[in-house]
Amino acid sequence: MSDRRRWTEHPLVQLTRVRYREFFREPEAVFWVFIFPVLLAAGLGIAFRNRAPERTSVAVVALDSSAAGLADALGRAPEVEVSLLSDSAAAEALRTGEVALVVVPSADGRVEYRFDDTRPESRIARLLVDDALQRAAGRRDPMSVSDRAVHERGSRYIDFLVPGLLGMNLMGSGIWGVGFAIVDARKKRLLKRLIATPMSRPQFLGSFVLSRLTLLVIEVGLLLGFGALVFGVPLRGSLVLLVTICLVSSLAFTSLGLLVASRVQTMEGASGLMNLVMLPMWIFSGVFFSASRFPDSLQPFIQALPLTAVVDALRANILRGAGWVAVAPELAIILAWLAVSFLLALKLFRWR
Amino acid sequence: MQSASGGVALQVRNLRKAYQDVVAVDGLDLEVFAGECFGLLGPNGAGKTTTIEICEGLNTPDAGEVTVLGRHWGKDERELRERLGISLQETQFSEKLTVEETVHLFRSFYRKGAASDAVIAMVQLGEKARSRVGGLSGGQKQRLALACALVGDPELLFLDEPTTGLDPQSRRQLWGLIEGFKSAGRSILLTTHYMEEAERLCDRVAIVDHGRMIALGTPRELIAALRAEHVLEFALAENSTVDEGPLRQIEGVCAAARQGGTYRLQVEELHRAMPALLGELRRQGVQLTELRTHSATLEDVFVSLTGRHLRDE
Question: Is residue B5's pLDDT more than 70?
Fold first, then answer.
């Protein structure tokens, strides 16, 4: 630089400040990027919190005197709640799911279990009830066992969810934040006006990257801080690795945003294209449930999606404390997306 | 500082540009002298914007040569960008930024130039410096566009329809600002379809139509070439027509034409032609419903050259 300007007058600094101003002066953007993920985590965390084990409801059909004895034996088992019902009332209760299983005594001292074997809670009830009745009838277990309850942080749904939401947020803010701003500027012919000045084009695109990276700190800090403080989500891995994953992911999604916005002329077109790009990842990438639930034939496609790699790497780092070597394959996929979309975006980008 | 070669700020030779189905510029030659305000005057679709955008290096010609400040777009883009000021048609600046922030941003792109505050004061937006762009009026937005064009202290200023859509007061205010820039010895190329704008601001005017230049000169020369200082227009009651032959014979009438229900006479000596016209109309027994007269303008030059008006109203 031939002149001695203050660093704040440098075009890259000015352009980046413009990005901040445009972002923070748009309350909706601030809400969707910062507040919404936290609300989502709070809502889902409360809805799917792990509760103290519930007692399983079963019914005994009051056919004869033996029914009262059976009910009494079951009543002593701590995990079973038992009620004596008539035959028809018991059938009704089973059908509506009020009870998980119906015990039908018969005159010869045998018992019949009626239950739906496709319902997990009915299968559990079958085990509990049978165990309680056999013991009451005098069964002795040949092996002596003892129980100890362990409540481990990191295995709950909220623990699974927070890294997923973080990945989804990195994707959304990267693609939306960059895409809309660029298409809007193109539509208003501001891009054309800017290239009519000596402005450097790489600095203009660089200002998006730079502003994303700084906003990232708030975005990641807010969500992980909330998860850790409110739900006690653990951070088991190295923080340097966590920051690296977030940085690389954000850059990859920012590049994808540049690519999506490289030619689109209207906001409607941009919006449609962005949703088209993000929809498969919302569905398949395992944000809300594990991606392994999808059939094996889809797995190569799912594993190649950038968000799948991001979410897997974040979970490995945050929940399992995985190191650099363990997340290297995911990082490689993310870097590949970063490189390919950035180069394509540069090649395709239209300034007017 | 390198001055423009031979006192020519901009030279365009045999410029051609066609889009899929329409020829926008069809062999145009232009020369803008250093220190001059040159106007491209023509109706919408005449090829003005295509021409000025090619000169600005924002569009590429199919054929022809463009020399700006003695430089060429292919080779010297970076240097030219530093030396030019550009105001496009219909640029919308970011609504969430303030006037000050916008001018500051544009200032940061240039190695040298005026202080942002000084430029904001120059375009009379000092009171609005801290207001959001979204809240500005049309005239204020155009002055902001002018500020962004001036902030690099340009040698040559391109203005594409700088006052289109503005109210008369805002337009006059902007004219005053452009005159100020001109009086500092800088060169301007502007496009407009307002004849008053061209007459007031431009040292020389090229009238363009269908991508070709159809007249070139100072506004005064162009009007003088009509050989008629005045224009006389009249209309008749419905269903009545007048025989145009005798009208042309009237002393002082240079030309007569009919457009719809309106007759137009180009007149040299109004005080002689007017009574004679009224006498002729009475002789032909037609009923006059309208009669207007004005001093000839560039609009009349355009009408006499093309038979159409600059703005179809």
Answer: no
Q: Does A206 touch chain B (CB under 8 A)?
A: no
Token pair of A314, please?
A: 């974040």
The CATH number for B279's domain is 3.30.70.980
- Of residues B88, B97, B106, nearest to A192 (C-beta): B88
Q: Do B141 and B280 fall into the same domain? A: no
Pairing verdict, β A80-85 and A56-61: parallel
pTM for this model (two decimals): 0.81
A 10 A CB-CB count for A55 gives 12
So what's the pLDDT on residue B286?
Answer: 87
- Looking at A10-19, A143-152, A256-265, B150-159, which range is the least confident one? A143-152
What is the C-alpha to C-alpha distance for residues B100 and B131, in angstroms, rounded to an integer?
Answer: 8
Confidence band (pLDDT; 50, 70, 90) for A78?
Answer: confident
Residues B32 and B133 grouped into a single domain: yes
What tens digit of pLDDT does each residue of B67-122 get?
999 999 989 999 999 999 999 988 899 999 999 999 999 999 999 999 999 999 99
Domains of chain A as residue ranges with CATH: 7-48+153-348 (no CATH), 56-136 (3.40.190.10)
Which chain A residues touch B88 with a CB distance below 8 Å? 189, 192-193, 196
Q: How far apart are CA A260 and CA B23, in angstroms?
A: 33
As a whole number of angstroms, the distance between CA B175 and CA B160 comes to: 14
Give the CATH number of the domain where residue B108 resides.
3.40.50.300
How many residues can be counted in chain B?
A: 313
The tally of domains found in chain B comes to: 2
